[in-house]
Amino acid sequence: MPDEIVAANPQSDTSREAGRIHMDVLRRLGLARRAAMTFELTDDLHRVTEAGVRHRHPDYDDDMVRLALVLLWLGPELFRRVHPTVEIEP
Prior knowledge:
Elements: H1 16-29, H2 31-56, H3 62-74, H4 76-82
């Protein structure tokens, strides 16, 4: 991983040294562990997003929650192409 990645955002609250240490730690984890972390973070994001839909729409059943999640993931334009008759709020 190139060192430029460490300071990709000049307005970051992370120092260059902290960024360098972070990247070194990630390198040492190896590809398999980094991939596992990515999948874990994705699962966590899906759970948090689902919880948000359920919080905003306590009246939604499981199917409606699933459709609201699909709407969030696909965006309204693609969602309407796939589900043209479904009216749902995320």
